[in-house]
Design goal:
CATH class: Alpha Beta
Strand content: 15-25%
Distance between the termini: 26 Å
CATH architecture: 3-Layer(aba) Sandwich
Strand order of the largest sheet: 3-2-1-6-9-11-12
Structural class: alpha/beta
Number of helices: 6
Radius of gyration: 16 Å
């Protein structure tokens, strides 16, 4: 590893620790209230309203609770997909779900994901993707949990990408390397941010 790459890794590690401490400091009431505001911001956005084929995620307990959007997407007749870990490939793939109670189960890393029998979704046909992150920068770059799974998944997806964050998770900048991918928008409990930059292909 080069000194520059090692320095970037150390910067990311330090920021993850700082963000983790802030997540732990949030009370359940604060997270519930913030999640409700976030849902309203997403529902009011044009990309969400226009999307017919959507990739969402099942949130972890310390992430904003977007689970109601999964239910709403299916109720509205949209096609819904979630990431599913492929142990044989060591990467996430995109699989379609139709009935949440039937199709989701605790998969890799304890995260709810589509069951193995759920069919793969043609990811290039997606209109809109919501994705979590540890922190986001105003230029759209995202700091993940450190495994790089979303960075490897995003290049194969169609449509636009929207990061989901608490207001304090949006920073002026985050450490980013050449392999890190940016989002088109960031949704928080109080605002919808359109990233003003030329995004990477």
């Amino acid at each position: 590893m080069t000194p520059l790459a090692d320095d970037l890794r150390q910067q990311k590690r330090a920021l993850r620790r700082e963000m983790q401490a802030r997540r732990r400091a949030m009370t359940d009431v604060e997270r519930t209230e913030a999640s409700a505001g976030l849902l309203e911001v997403i529902r009011g956005s044009e990309p969400w309203r226009q999307a017919g084929q959507i990739l969402l995620f099942a949130p972890l307990p310390d992430e904003p609770d977007i689970f109601p959007l999964l239910e709403e997407a299916l109720a509205a007749g949209r096609r819904l997909a979630l990431p599913r870990f492929s142990p044989s490939q060591g990467v996430y793939e995109v699989a379609e779900v139709q009935v949440l109670e039937r199709d989701l189960y605790p998969g890799a890393f304890g995260i709810r994901e589509p069951r193995p029998e759920c069919p793969l979704f043609p990811s290039k046909h997606l209109d809109f993707t919501l994705l979590p992150g540890v922190a986001f920068a105003s230029d759209g770059f995202r700091l993940g949990r450190g495994k790089g799974y979303y960075d490897r998944l995003l290049p194969g997806l169609g449509g636009g990408f929207c990061g989901v964050a608490m207001d304090w998770q949006v920073l002026p900048s985050v450490p980013a390397g050449s392999h890190d991918k940016a989002v088109n928008w960031i949704a928080t409990p109080t605002r919808w941010i359109t990233v003003r930059r030329v995004l990477q292909e």
